[in-house]
Amino acid sequence: xxxxxxxxxxxxxxxxxxxxxxxxxxxxxxxxxxxxxxxxxxxxxxxxxxxxxxxxxxxxxxxxxxxxxxxxxxxxxxxxxxxxxxxxxxxxxxxxxxxxxxxxxxxxxxxxxxxxxxxxxxxxxxxxxxxxxxxxxxxxxxxxxxxxxxxxxxxxxxxxxxxxxxxxxxxxxxxxxxxxxxxxxxxxxxxxxxxxxxxxxxxxxxxxxxxxxxxxxxxxxxxxxxxxxxxxxxxxxxxxxxxxxxxxxxxxxxxxxxxxxxxxxxxxxxxxxxxxxxxxxxxxxxxxxxxxxxxxxxxxxxxxxxxxxxxxxxxxxxxxxxxxxxxxxxxxxxxxxxxxxxxxxxxxxxxxxxxxxxxxxxxxxxxxxxxxxxxxxxxxxxxxxxxxxxxxxxxxxxxx
Length: 400
Hints:
This protein is an alpha/beta fold. The protein has 3 domains: 1-163, Rossmann fold (3-Layer(aba) Sandwich), CATH 3.40.50; 168-263, no CATH class; 266-393, ANL, C-terminal domain (GMP Synthetase, Chain A, domain 3), CATH 3.30.300. It contains 11 helices and 20 strands. Residues 367-371 have low confidence and may be disordered.
């Protein structure tokens, strides 16, 4: 569509630890920044009555440098002067992650608007700042943690966190709602949106629905086609719930969505890395762990997400040695997991050994011909049943 030199080469994390690269026209990046990204920051400062954003405001952005999306968009917006117009954007995109966190801690009183992960706020920034912070606006990139710590973040930062949906494939394609906390509405200028119902009604013969046809309380899988790039019918592989038919504070009647879950058979940690079932099996084999079966959960502890593996093995193993080996092998095979470990300075995986025979009893109770263990995405009800079986096999066993 465009001469090759007019494209920006952007890297994203793919499934199973494999990186993906996208070619996106710089003209489209610029247009998205002007029409959608800047309004996102503007709306993050809206207090229900007016916008608080002003020319020259200092905007703190904690995002990965080029060739990742955030750094690439900043570089395109900055141009040859390497300084974005209109606002004072800090810190330098190319400094280390740890230094970006320290910058916020040391300069919190001079920051007007912040864009960062809620998990970083909760686990690293908020415990280190002893004084009150009064941000004009706050944009968080991880909805689940922002929702879990909504009250604490609001009290500590002096404003309510806002969020939207976007990705390397779609860029910024939505704007934050004011009436519905952590909700957003889709920017129709970015492309064509189609909606696949998660729970399809028997009376509905359509494969996809239009924006005007979605219903409050229902969840949908969004398919996106860009109007200005080569991206056609991109399946976001995520479910989004419709929480409202409009935003009274903004005076719009567009549906308001909230991110619900990823639909892929992968585990997402901080929306940073995705770990597949096959990847875990490979890691267990390389670690010398002979397993009967396993399932996984995501636990949120002090603002950090942990991948907890509940593992039944064929022989007794030392828990610490097994954890160290699994963590080490994951760092080798999954670049994004390794980067997450380094950025957040923690070990994102935990291992719980189940008593022998637990999964066998679990499968017997499923009453199906081809029963399988849900290694990823096991329902809360099913997991509770698994825990009860484990306790019945060994009364001293406790999940940790």
